Amino acid sequence: MRLAYTTLACPGWSVEQVAERTREYGYDGIELRLLDGEIFGPDLDAAQRRRVKSVFADAQLPIATLDTSVRIAADEAPAEDLKGWIDLAREWGAPWLRVFGGARDDLTQDQSLDRASRALEQIAPFAEEHGVGIAVETHDVFASAVIVGRVIDRVPSPAIGALWDTHHPYRMGEQPAQVWEALKGRVVHTHVKDARRNGDGWDLVLLGEGEVPVREDLDLLREKGYDAWTVVEWEKKWHPEIPDPEIALPQHIKVLRQWLGEN
C-alpha cells in the first residue's frame, strides 16, 4: 500500500511546507483537501494551479486524490460540477476525486440513492475519457457501506468506486468483512482514522489508541489484494483541539508501517 495524508491535517501549513513535511515524515504522497489552510476548488487561477503542480512535482510527491465537497445526492448539478474537478485532477496527475453522498430533507433515502446513482451515470463517461475516477466516501448519511454499495452497484464503470473511511462504517455497526462485502470489492481508496466513543459522540485519537478496528481493516484489504492509497485523515481543520500535525502525522506513519510489516 502507498501511504499519504490529507492536508485537512495541517491547516497551518503552506503548500511548500506540506511538500517538505511529507518528504520528512516518509509518506509516499499527499491528498489535497486544503491549500494554504483553505478549502479550494477548480476555479483556482492559472498561477496557483501551476504553483501546486510544480511544488509537488519538484518534491517527487504524487497527488493521490483531490477531496471535493460535491454531494452527488444533494447538489443541483453534481455531474456538471465534477467536470471542472476532473480537469484539475488531470492537470495535477491525481487519479481520483472524493465525493460525498449528501442528503436533502425533501428526499427519501431511495430518492437520494437514485439521485446519487444518476449523477454517477452522467459523469462516468467523461471521467473515463479523462482518466480520473470518482470515489464515493462512506460519510454523512452515506456512512454505511451498504448504502454506498447500493449506489455504486448501479454504475458498473471502472471510473466509479468506493472510498472506505474506516471510522464511519464502524460507528454504523459494520465490521471489516461486512464493509468489504457491501462494497463488492470496489474499494479504490481508503481513509484511516481512529476514534473513541464519548457519550453520543466520538473523540478522534491517535492511531491505535481508539476502538476503530483499523489494523483489521488493513489486514483484510491486503488479503484481498488492495494496493491503492491508504490515507491518514487527521481532521485538525475541523477539530483544533486534537494534537497538532507535527505529533499526529509522524505517529500515524510509524504505526502504519509497523502494522504493514514495513519496519
What is the terminal separation in angstroms?
14 Å
Secondary-structure element sequence? EHEEEHEHEHEHEHHEEEHEH
Low-confidence stretches: none
Q: Tell how many strands the DSSP assignment holds.
A: 12
Helix content: 40-55%
User: Total helix count?
Assistant: 9
Average pLDDT metric: 97
What's the alpha carbon Rg, rounded to whole Å? Answer: 17 Å
Please describe the biggest sheet, giving its number of strands, its sense, and whether it closes into a barrel: 8 strands, parallel, barrel
Sequence of strands across the biggest β-sheet = 1-2-5-6-7-8-9-12
The SS-based structural class is alpha/beta
Q: Shape from CA axes?
A: globular
Report on this model:
- The chain has helices spanning about 15-25, 45-60, 80-90, 110-130, 145-155, 165-170, 175-180, 215-225, 245-260, and strands at about 1-5, 30, 35, 40, 65-70, 95-100, 135, 160-165, 185-190, 195-200, 200-205, 230.
- The strands form 3 sheets. An 8-stranded parallel β-barrel has the order 1-2-5-6-7-8-9-12, surrounded by 5 helices.
- About 45% of the residues are buried.
- The mean pLDDT is about 95.
- The protein has 9 helices and 12 strands.
- Helix 4 (about 110-130) links the parallel strand 6 and strand 7 (about 135).
- The chain is of the alpha/beta class.
Question: Which key terms come to mind for this protein?
Answer:
single chain, 263 residues, alpha/beta, eight-stranded parallel β-barrel, two-stranded antiparallel sheet, 22% strand
